[in-house]
Amino acid sequence: MDHKKPIILNDLEEWDFIDYIDSLIQKEETVDLEFKIAKDGLPNSLWDTYSSFANTDGGIIVLGVKEHKQQFIIEGLTKEQIGQYKKDFWNQANNPDCINENLLVDKDLYEGSYKGKRLLLIYVPRASRTQRPIYRTKNPFGGHTFKRNHEGDYKCTDAEVRRMIADSDESHPRDSRILSNYSMDDIDKETLIQYRRLFANLKPSHPWLSLDDLDFLTKLEAYRRDRHTKEEGFTLAGILMFGKTESITDPECAPNYFPDYREHLETDISLRWSDRICPDGTWEANLFQFYRKVYPKLTAILPKPFQIKNGIRIDETPTHIAVREAFINALIHCDFSEEGNIVVEQWVDKYRFKTPEQCLSAKHNIIKEEIVYVAIRRYRKCLC
User: Fold this and answer.
1) Which helix (H) or strand (E) holds 353?
2) Is residue 14 part of a domain?
3) Cβ atoms within 10 Å, residue 219
4) Whether residue 17 is found in the same domain as residue 155
């Protein structure tokens, strides 16, 4: 049974419940499962786990189970305890001094009997992006917001909390944030010239070609005017895509920005890499230039069979497209406010696209598009 689905809690027959608890105990505590003895009332740590499950991938809290020397012992709860715990749970779940938001409904609490002992199960769903962060008390900062790693609840850093808050605002995506005191002086002219030239080659009759640079960047949402606040300026995405290196790494923008490509194509295992591309002061290390430098490296070792389709030579294979998509997805989804940023690695037989939040394989089906143009439209109009 899939313990992530709350419907199973209400639909379980007694014999199903026994099998279900057996499966949980065999699984032991994991990223989405927590046992608590709850002998003397609802443990205060329950709300740490509630927060961590809600901010991660959801999970099940089982009350009435004791852990001793890495073994789980079914202690059980009395009928009176369960009745009181349910009452206390709902009172606390709807008290903003305890937790900022109640995500649960009645069916998410389930009382069951396991080998003659009563247990109380609490299903905590994953909070939606607009609901996160879920946190203790009325203040999300200062260690009141939790995340789940393996079998433990860990306090989120204030930077992680700010990222969740920014992500929750659908009207103002994080990378559309207007940066203070940025101007055309922060845009790398050569990058903009190269991009406009490529854009013109792909869309030779597009009406944006007649626009001046600032209006062109505005169409791409690299520059934005906020209708409500009257604020205007370059966006985070715009500077990441077209900016000078020192403008990108300014504290106002992305001070931890450091895109990194590492090539491992030599047979000598003592070498850390055979080639590397990273901000070293010899080039403007914005995302457009990083893409232009790295993508040819990623595809250089791929075979290019000679193909003709409708009288046109086709140089790309599905593998080329998959690698490109994985690379672009990593650039889009990377949080450049975090330390580490994106690391792209290539070996003879595999690629790795690693960001602070994910590691993407190049083995994906993707949609073939005009990458640079679509990139500008999707990375808040700057990357695809």
Assistant:
1) strand 351-354
2) yes
3) 16
4) yes
Say if residue 156 is in the same domain as residue 219. no
Chain center to CA of 278: 23
Using 50, 70 and 90 to split pLDDT, how confident is the model at 13?
low
* Burial (Cβ within 10 Å: 0-12, 13-18, ≥19) of residue 370: middle
CA torsion angle for 336, 339, 340, 342 (degrees, to 10)?
A: -10
Q: Per-residue pLDDT averaged across 294-312, rounded?
A: 81
Nearest 5 degrees, angle CA 167-CA 95-CA 8?
Answer: 75
List Cα–Cα distances, 26 to 58, 67, 113, 338, in angstroms.
19, 13, 18, 37
Closest CA to 141 of 128, 129, 157, 117: 157
Cβ 357 vs Cβ 329: under 8 Å? no
What is the structure's pLDDT at 250?
A: 93
- CA 277, distance to chain mean position in Å, is 24
223 & 277 share domain:
yes
Q: Which domain holds residue 157?
A: 7-168
Residue 177 placed within a domain = no
Q: Which residue has the tokens 């020397």?
A: 69
Residue with tokens 């996160």: 132
Task: Give the number of domains in the chain.
Answer: 2
Rounded Cα–Cα distance for residues 199 and 219 (Å)? 13
Per the listing, tokens 């103002």 go with: 172
pTM of the model: 0.57
Work out the angle at residue 143's Cα, subtended by the Cα atoms of residues 141 and 148, and round it to the nearest 5 degrees. 115
